[in-house]
Write a structure and sequence with these properties.
With about 120 residues, this protein is α+β, with helices and mostly antiparallel strands. It has one domain: OB fold (Dihydrolipoamide Acetyltransferase, E2P) (Beta Barrel), CATH 2.40.50.110. The chain contains two helices and six strands; from the N terminus they run H-E-E-E-E-H-E-E. Strand 2 and strand 3 form a beta hairpin. The longest helix has 15 residues. The radius of gyration is 18 Å and the shape is globular.
Length: about 120
């Protein structure tokens, strides 16, 4: 009977525990640098942003954000990131994942928005 209680508590904990790495937004930032790098048949977009980066995970030791061409939204994110960079838009929101799967020292990008528009 005790083993069933332990399993139940374990499952309940996994269902209700907060994620270790949670997605979050960097709001009203400016993309201060952007670059594309190729490795192993993939393209990787890197960006630097202005503002508070204290929410970045420890793995993002460079302070950059990244996405690679395996992501279905890669081309669209490259387009909007480079447009925001070229226009010096300071109303950019970057939605990031809190992980460093696309590049080991840069936080994963999930989305980018320009201008005064709600998500």
């Amino acid at each position: 009977m005790n083993i069933i209680k332990i399993i139940f508590v374990g499952i309940a904990f996994l269902c209700f525990a907060p994620e270790l790495s949670a997605a979050h937004y960097y709001r009203n930032v400016e993309i201060t640098a952007a670059g594309i790098y190729g490795q192993n048949g993939k393209s990787i977009l890197f960006i630097n942003i202005s503002g508070d980066k204290s929410g970045m995970p420890a793995c993002a030791s460079t302070g950059r954000l990244a996405i690679n061409s395996d992501a279905p939204q890669f081309k669209e994110l490259v387009s909007i990131a480079l447009s925001a960079y070229a226009l010096n838009d300071s109303q950019v929101d970057v939605y990031a994942n809190g992980t460093c799967n696309y590049w080991s020292n840069s936080e994963d990008i999930l989305g980018i928005k320009m201008g005064a528009m709600p998500w």
